[in-house]
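Narrative progress, year one. The postdoctoral researcher (J.K.) led the effort to move from monomer predictions toward full complexes, under supervision of the PI. The following entry was the first complex the group processed end to end, covering 353 residues in total.
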Amino acid sequence: MKKEAKKTQDIFKTLCEIGKDLSATMDSDELLTKIMEGAKQICDVRADSILLLDKKKEELYFRIALGEKGEEIKKVVLPVGEGIAGWVAKSGQPLIVNDVSLDPRFSKAVDEKTKLKTKSILCVPIKFKEEILGVIEVLNKSNDKEFTAEDLQYLTVLASQAAVALNNSLLMDELHNFFVNTIEILVMAIEAVEPESKGHAVRIARLATAMARQLKFNQKDYEDLYYAALIHDIGKLKIEEPKQFHPIIGAEMVKEIKLLLGTIPLIKSHHEHYDGKGYPEGLKGDMIPVGAGILAIAEDFEEQFLNMRIMDRGIFAEMKKRFLSDANMRYAPEVISAFAEVMILSTDIYDFL
Ligand SMILES: [Fe+2]
């Protein structure tokens, strides 16, 4: 196969692989780094970067910078309109500058800060539906060669892939934001049913996650526990039902929400006890998920705390001791040790004491 044909085939392969990754992963940092590695290879350069536009501040900041001095470059911020990247971000037009010393638009600011020597730049805008999100630039083609129209074409394709990755991550952020806000609204609704329990869910969440850290929960289990802690009593919103059904009703209420699926077993079993004397199913020992055991101990402790309305460190210490000596049969041993550890270490869960 001729050298040129082989090169085109390699480029096509790289572009296809990035395309495949775009639909397979939501991790925008990983995707953008892959895109920039592709750009380095395709355009045959030693350094390249993605700069994103901060519309409010009218600045470009480095999101990804590959090559020598990549980390130092990331500290630099460029005003829109300044330098080649700033010009591309402002005009929305791509630009090839094969000798920056001859182009008045070139700014030495980045070179001066990073002690790099830029000779040539190819820069293209990253656009999503005509909106400029940032720019991609590649610097210094190998062997002092010039950037060509072909390089520009390939980099434009990579920029459109970066636009999709960035837009996906924006959508994910919005979804996450919406999700967290919805949870907060639910917590407020639950607390409205029992106004005396204000702050109860947040304290349980802090206590529960501190225990999860002691037990080295993985990220997913940790998040499930955190959300379950916040909404574990959501079943109480159905006030016409007897109170002891609230774990089952709560689990039933969230079952259609995909992001909350992991919380269901925890909500459902948060009043089970290790000795089988809890409710609603009377589960025993290892049949109870560890996260549910954590919620049980956290909620029981919180309940006592609320009942006693303790505002005194001495009484609080006495209450912790008594609570732990009563705990033996009700909670899993590992959960009790995590609780005891947290109670020794904790300074911020009941920090007003
Ligand atoms: Fe409960």
